[in-house]
Structures are given as structure tokens and as C-alpha cells.
């Protein structure tokens, strides 16, 4: 099967492939997929413009040969049967051009995952604007804990497995279903390739303003995804997002069940309470009261998505006690409410939040777990959407619950016109009017120095960014050690 490029495949027989080369291998998803393929017995190489730790170390540990920079010679050296093209690669990339000119079979990462990993398996896809990584990691862990020996690929490093992938011999594959575009030759959403038979839809709020025109365009991607679920499939959808429920009910041919942590639903959490150990709650399912569960996490959103995992796990045939054991032994995902250290009584927590809903829910969750401590929220609006003023109003209330807030002013971005940029000054002014001691700076070092100098014993410093934030957390921890030790 091919398109006007002549050699772009949408499906391929795994047995016909031995040597695989990944162009753009240093990305989190591509690098992890390279490791997964290597562990699966393929001869794997990859290339990128440059590769830095931790991905460079991980690729070396997995035995994946990495070539830098991009060059047609890399294709000659790799001698691939199949080339996988990352979604950051443009058509003019020298290796992408070489692959086309030589007529070497090529696929996108999602299409290759569908063919090489999902063939003959039961695909369980977690989709939605928020919470995909933690929810898919929890789903995968529940299945491992229950002895089903699943395969999984998620967008963050799971603490239980020290990896974001696992190759299992069992029937189930859990994959995080991203709505972002697939490759330069396939501008459709990634999750269209994941052959979902069971799925979980956590939320639908406007995101990825660089590829979706508006909310209707964004929702259309989820309509297409829901339509891929077969008649004997199952879709659990959060009742907290009526538009997501509407999408599921109008587009999914399989069975649709709702779930919630705080409203009526087919699967609902009751008697919810938070403490230092996490969240305790009772799940009520269609068959009745399933008993109490412990989830070692905080936040209503995490509890809600755990209820969704319960619904999906029950649809896959697991018993309530199997799910209960999986929840209690889940250690979380790095960069999702991850404790990075406590120095001089200052607790530093790292989180991936960047959309205003994620910022708000993360702050609420941290407040629930550390109710007696002062919270200092540090935020970098780094993603293409968070830099834009489409969520200007939402950010002004997203920090409620924090005593202090420090926001990094993002550098100009060529894809975000000046008139569409988030007005950080206006956000700071609005936060101050709500009683939050807020400041902003374009200089990461300035923010780091302020937190080091003014944080007090008992404070919780919550750092939120979907990137490295200029090394903010390592610099903060080093500075706190120098001050207190």
C-alpha cells in the first residue's frame, strides 16, 4: 500500500522485517519505540540531529545504535528493511529524502506500532486531552499485577517498571493514544492507527492550537477515534466532560460506559477522602458496591481516571480484587506529581501540567495531600497552546490554592504571532488580585534564585512544565543544598 510518495506503508507483515531504522530517534516516543523493537528481536538503529541524556543513555542501554547528525550515509550504514519517520521530521530532511529516492519502505511511528506490535493483540487505548500518561500507566500496571503479562507503551517513565514500555506475551497491549498529527505524509491523529478494541476517553478540551483550527475541528478527531472501536468493543468516557460523552455516544459502535469521581455515572467513586497515603474511595459499578480502594495519588482527576481504569479492567475480565491490588501497588509516573527531593524542609515536586485545567487540578491535588503546607507554584507555559491567549482567562483562576506563583515568560515562538501570545503580565496582575503573591520573569535563573532565597521550611514548591524548564529543578535542588546543608 502506498501514496503519492510511492513507498509509504500503512501496514506491513512483521515477519518480513528484520532491520529497522528510526529517523528522529531522540524523541521520547520514538526512542522508547526503538527500545521496544530492539527488545522484541529486531535489529534497530536510529538517527537524530543530536542526542543528549537521558535519552542517549537509555538508547545505549537498550543497544540501539544512534547516528548523528542526519545524513544520507546513515541510511546506507543502516541497510534498513523499514524506516520509521518521526513526526518532527519534515519532508525536506536529508534522510527522509534519501528514503524516498531509494524507494525504501517507510512508515510513521503509529502505523509501525499498529503493524509490528498490535497485530493479533487486544488493543487498549487511553485517549483524551488530560491524564493520558498516568491513566495508561495505571491501566498497564493493573494488568501486570493481575498476571495478564501485557505489552505497553506510555508517554512517561513508570516508576514500577523504570521504563515507559514493556514487551509481554499476554493478549493485551496498552498504548497512550495521542491526538497529535502522525508524520509529514500523514497529518491525521496518531490514535487512528492504534486499532482500539477497548478504550478510555479521559477528557476533551481544546488543545494543540498549532494543528487544530478550533474546538469543532479538535472534537472531530475524537469522533473519528471513537468510530474505530468495533461493535464488540468497549469505551469508558468521563462523565465530567459532557462533550466527550456526546462524542462517545454518537460515534462509538461498541458499548459506552460513563465514569466519574463526583457525579452520577455507570462507574462512580463514593466516600472519597485524601490523606498522606493518597486517596481512599469506594467504587459503585452497575453490579453494586465494589468495596474500598486505595490509590497512592492525590487529586480528583486521578481518582476519576482510576475509576475509568476500573471500568475498562472489568470489561477486560478482571475481578474487583485484582484491580484493587493493582491500584494499591501503583508507584506512579515520573514528572506526574513526582517528588524530586526535600531539602531544609522544602519539598520539591515535578509535574508535566501545562494546560490550565491540568495546572488547576494539579494544584488542587497537591493541596489535598499537603493541606497544612504553603504552596509555591512555578510554571513554564512552554507548549504551543499554553503560549497562546486562547486560555488567557482560564490561567487567571488556575492557580487558586497556591500562596505564591512564579511564571516564566516564554521566549518568542515563530508559530505564535505577537497578537496571539499569552499576556503573562495580565495573568500576574489577576493572580495578585486573587491574593496570590505572583511574579514573572523571562529568565529561568532569576526565578530559581528567588525560590532558593525565599522558600521556607514547610513549603511545597510545585514546578509545572512540559519541558526541561532550562534545568530549573536540578538548579533549585543544588541551591537549596547550598543554603540549608
Helix and strand topology:
Layout: E1 19-23, H1 28-39, E2 43-47, H2 55-62, E3 65-67, H3 72-78, E4 82-85, H4 94-102, E5 106-108, H5 109-116, E6 122-127, H6 132-145, E7 151-158, E8 163-166, E9 172-177, E10 181-183, E11 186-189, E12 198-201, H7 215-227, E13 234-238, H8 242-251, E14 255-260, E15 267-275, E16 278-285, E17 288-295, H9 300-315, H10 320-328, E18 338-343, E19 346-351, H11 356-369, E20 375-379, H12 392-398, E21 404-408, H13 424-433, E22 437-441, H14 444-454, E23 460-464, H15 472-484
Parallel strand pairs: 1-2, 1-4, 2-3, 4-5, 6-9, 6-12, 7-9, 12-13, 13-14, 14-15, 19-23, 20-21, 20-23, 21-22
Antiparallel strand pairs: 7-8, 10-11, 15-16, 16-17, 18-19
Structural notes for this entry:
It is a single chain. The chain has 485 residues and is an alpha/beta fold. It has three domains: 14-108, Rossmann fold (3-Layer(aba) Sandwich); 117-328, Mur-like, catalytic domain (UDP-N-acetylmuramoyl-L-alanine:D-glutamate ligase, 3-Layer(aba) Sandwich); 338-484, Mur ligase, C-terminal domain (Protein-Tyrosine Phosphatase, Chain A, Alpha-Beta Complex), CATH 3.90.190.20. It has helices spanning 28-39, 55-62, 72-78, 94-102, 109-116, 132-145, 215-227, 242-251, 300-315, 320-328, 356-369, 392-398, 424-433, 444-454, 472-484, and strands at 19-23, 43-47, 65-67, 82-85, 106-108, 122-127, 151-158, 163-166, 172-177, 181-183, 186-189, 198-201, 234-238, 255-260, 267-275, 278-285, 288-295, 338-343, 346-351, 375-379, 404-408, 437-441, 460-464. The strands form four sheets. It has a ten-stranded mixed β-sheet, with helices on both faces. It has a six-stranded mixed β-sheet with strand order 18-19-23-20-21-22, sandwiched between helices. Strand 7 (151-158) and strand 8 (163-166) form a beta hairpin. Helix 6 crosses helix 9 (300-315), helix 6 (132-145) packs across helix 10 and helix 7 (215-227) packs across helix 8. The protein is globular. The mean pLDDT is 92.
Amino acid at each position: 500500500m502506498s501514496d503519492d510518495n510511492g513507498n509509504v506503508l500503512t501496514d506491513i507483515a512483521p515477519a518480513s522485517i528484520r532491520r529497522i531504522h528510526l529517523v528522529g530517534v531522540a524523541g521520547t516516543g520514538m526512542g522508547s519505540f526503538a527500545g521496544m523493537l530492539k527488545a522484541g528481536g529486531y535489529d534497530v538503529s536510529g538517527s537524530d540531529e543530536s542526542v543528549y541524556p537521558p535519552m542517549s543513555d537509555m538508547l545505549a542501554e537498550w543497544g540501539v545504535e544512534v547516528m548523528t547528525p542526519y545524513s544520507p550515509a546513515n541510511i546506507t550504514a543502516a541497510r534498513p528493511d523499514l524506516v520509521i519517520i518521526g513526526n518532527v521530521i519534515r519532508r525536506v530532511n536529508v534522510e527522509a529524502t534519501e528514503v524516498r529516492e531509494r524507494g525504501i519502505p517507510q512508515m510513521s511511528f503509529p502505523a509501525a506500532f499498529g503493524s509490528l506490535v498490535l497485530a493479533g493483540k487486544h488493543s487498549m487505548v487511553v485517549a483524551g486531552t488530560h491524564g493520558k500518561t498516568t491513566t495508561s500507566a495505571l491501566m498497564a500496571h493493573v494488568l501486570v499485577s493481575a498476571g495478564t503479562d501485557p505489552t505497553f507503551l506510555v508517554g512517561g517513565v513508570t516508576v514500577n517498571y523504570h521504563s515507559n514500555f514493556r514487551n509481554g506475551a499476554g493478549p493485551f497491549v496498552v498504548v497512550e493514544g495521542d491526538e497529535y498529527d502522525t508524520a509529514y505524509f500523514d497529518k491525521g491523529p496518531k490514535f487512528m492507527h492504534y486499532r482500539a478494541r477497548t478504550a478510555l476517553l479521559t477528557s476533551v478540551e481544546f488543545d494543540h492550537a498549532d494543528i487544530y483550527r478550533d474546538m469543532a475541528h479538535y472534537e472531530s478527531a475524537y469522533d473519528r477515534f471513537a468510530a474505530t472501536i468495533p461493535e464488540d468493543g468497549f469505551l469508558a468516557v468521563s462523565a465530567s466532560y459532557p462533550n466527550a460523552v456526546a462524542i462517545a455516544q454518537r460515534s462509538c459502535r461498541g458499548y459506552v460506559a460513563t465514569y466519574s469521581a463526583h457525579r452520577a455515572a455507570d462507574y462512580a467513586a463514593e466516600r472519597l477522602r485524601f490523606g498522606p497515603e493518597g486517596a481512599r474511595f469506594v467504587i459503585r459499578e452497575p453490579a453494586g458496591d465494589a468495596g474500598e480502594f486505595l490509590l497512592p495519588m492525590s487529586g480528583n482527576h486521578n481518582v476519576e481516571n482510576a475509576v475509568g481504569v476500573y471500568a475498562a479492567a472489568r470489561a477486560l475480565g478482571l475481578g474487583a480484587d485484582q484491580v484493587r491490588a493493582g491500584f494499591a501497588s501503583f508507584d506512579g509516573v515520573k514528572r506526574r506529581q513526582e517528588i524530586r527531593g526535600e531539602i531544609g524542609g522544602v519539598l520539591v515536586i515535578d509535574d508535566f501540567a501545562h494546560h490550565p485545567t491540568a495546572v488547576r487540578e494539579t494544584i488542587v491535588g497537591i493541596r489535598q495531600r499537603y493541606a497544612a503546607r504553603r504552596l509555591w507554584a512555578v510554571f513554564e507555559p512552554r507548549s504551543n497552546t499554553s503560549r497562546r491567549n486562547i486560555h488567557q482567562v482560564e490561567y487567571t483562576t488556575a492557580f487558586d490554592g497556591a500562596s505564591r506563583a512564579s511564571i516564566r515568560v516564554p521566549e518568542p515562538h515563530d508559530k505564535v504571532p505577537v497578537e496571539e501570545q499569552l499576556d503573562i503580565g495580565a495573568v500576574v496582575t489577576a493572580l495578585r488580585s486573587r491574593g496570590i503573591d505572583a511574579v514573572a520573569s523571562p529568565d529561568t535563573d532569576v526565578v530559581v534564585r528567588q525560590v532558593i532565597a525565599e522558600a521556607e521550611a514547610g513549603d511545597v514548591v510545585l514546578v509545572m512544565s512540559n519541558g526541561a524548564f532550562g534545568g530549573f529543578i536540578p538548579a533549585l535542588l543544588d541551591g537549596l543544598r547550598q543554603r540549608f546543608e
